[in-house]
Amino acid sequence: MYGRIGTMTGIPTTTNPVFADFSACCDPITGGVLDTAAAERLAAVLKALAEPTRLRLVSLIAAHDRAEACVCDLTDPVGLSQPTVSHHLRILADAGLIERDQRGKWAYYRLIPGVLDALAGVLATADRRRRAADSAQQVRVERLAPGRRRS
């Protein structure tokens, strides 16, 4: 259901395979639209975040001390069993959002540094393009408004 789209090695976001080509394809000055492969990877990440429990888990991990939390600390706040929470965390890890560190019998999870910023950047770039296109359209409409001479 949720295919593995990147390995969690703790590498910086700029070289994280999940987001590797988003910045190149989404530069507001030179970029075009997402290619098919990038759109599929981005959709997989957004799909992982679209489930309310997983979105809450990301929020809890980000707010926890050192932006890292033991799975045992996450079960009570979301009101789910440890196996269910672990399942949701695995989906987030497979999507390239968090990484797992096994310490004895407990697993600790942390956000991959910069991943949420990279995701926000991709979405903000799309919004900037839309606003720029809207502004350009408004300028064209104003130039052709009645009472103005067309050159």
Automatic annotation (TrEMBL):
**An example Gene Ontology molecular-function term:** DNA-binding transcription factor activity
Keywords attached to this entry: DNA-binding, Transcription, Transcription regulation
| Stored InterPro entries | ArsR-like_HTH, ArsR_HTH, HTH_ArsR_DNA-bd_dom, HTH_MetalResp_TranReg, WH-like_DNA-bd_sf, WH_DNA-bd_sf
According to the entry, every stretch annotated as the HTH arsR-type domain falls at 34-130
Q: What is this protein called?
A: HTH arsR-type domain-containing protein
Q: Which Pfam families match?
A: HTH_5 (PF01022)
Q: Which domain of life is it from?
A: Bacteria
Instruction: Say if the entry is tagged with keyword Repressor.
Output: no
Task: Give the matching Gene3D superfamilies.
Answer: Winged helix-like DNA-binding domain superfamily/Winged helix DNA-binding domain (1.10.10.10)
